[in-house]
Amino acid sequence: MRGSVPAPGAKTRRYGGNTPCVEVRAGGNRLILDAGSGLRALGERLRDSGGPVEADFLLSHYHYDHLQGLPFFAPLAEPGNRFVFHGPRREGRSVQDVLEGQMVPPYFPVTLDQLARAAIEFRSVEPGERFEIGVVRVTSAELDHPGGNLGYRLEFRGRTLVYATDVEHTDRPAESLVELARGADVLLHDAMYVDSEYEQRRGWGHSTWAGALATAEAAEVKTLVLFHHDPERDDRALDAVLKRVQKQFPRTIAAREGVTIRIAGKARLTEPAAARYSRRR
Ligand SMILES: [Zn+2]
Ligand SMILES: [Zn+2]
């Protein structure tokens, strides 16, 4: 959930420093939203869970922070596992071209083909496309971000999660995103900047917390998850941002490493047992 580049260290320990990777489980299906550095830890957990691993990756776009976990995703190297990579066509290149193209020397010593013992497939996603992954209905929408970025709406048995990382708004929430997120139970939304930072970074493709909040209100979502935290935002500063947003939109969470959100009627937050941390300020 960290944006742009991993930000490990004492000051980001509570929220975590890994870049975007979100596991979604719905009715026996496993979807993985983006392959940021958080994917390594997810891979270890899946490897240790026993039994074959199957998952569908939904990739938003191909900036480093959304891909850099892939070469370190252990289940990829295990025969018997199966993965499908869904992602947009960019710069004339398919999702397969892009993923293979980032795993070649001198950037990385092992190619995807050499690494993958699992069965893998690739599937292009068009902006605005609707399709199904098992029991999950997926809708994509193009978001405003340099080079393009797809947002995804996932629906399963009347429950809806919308993933909108890396998106910039003008002075109003983007209509296409409001439409995508309409009535969602949970909206994960880019909240990289505070207003003063945004003034220096217009056109960089990211939102302020105020933009995330305005989108959540316009789309009438039930729970807002602040996502893609600035790597320079330490835990205390992020606490302050969260508190400020909650004043106006109480059902707001700041994305945190290892946290589980259950969507069953009302979205509920479950802390992982391993993530007990000191709340000392
Ligand atoms: Zn990003
Ligand atoms: Zn990006």
Q: β content, as a range?
A: 25-35%
SSE order, as H and E? EEHEEHHEEEEEHEHHEHEEE
- CATH fold category name: Metallo-beta-lactamase, Chain A
Major sheet description: 7 strands, mixed
Structure description:
With 281 residues, the chain is α/β, with parallel strands linked by helices. It has a single domain (10-275), classed as Ribonuclease Z/Hydroxyacylglutathione hydrolase-like (Metallo-beta-lactamase, Chain A, 4-Layer Sandwich), CATH 3.60.15. Helices cover 21% and strands 27% of the residues. The chain has helices at 39-48, 95-101, 112-115, 175-181, 195-200, 209-219, 235-248, and strands spanning 22-26, 29-33, 54-58, 82-87, 119-124, 130-133, 136-143, 149-156, 159-164, 186-190, 223-227, 252-254, 260-264, 266-270. The strands form three sheets. Strands 6-7-8-9-10-11-12 form a seven-stranded mixed sheet. The protein has a five-stranded mixed sheet with strand order 1-2-3-4-5, with no helix packed on it. Strands 13-14 form a two-stranded antiparallel sheet. Strand 7 (136-143) and strand 8 (149-156) form a beta hairpin. The radius of gyration is 18 Å and the shape is globular. The model is unreliable at 273-281 (pLDDT under 50). It binds zinc ion (2 copies). One zinc ion binds at residues 61, 63, 145, 166, 205.
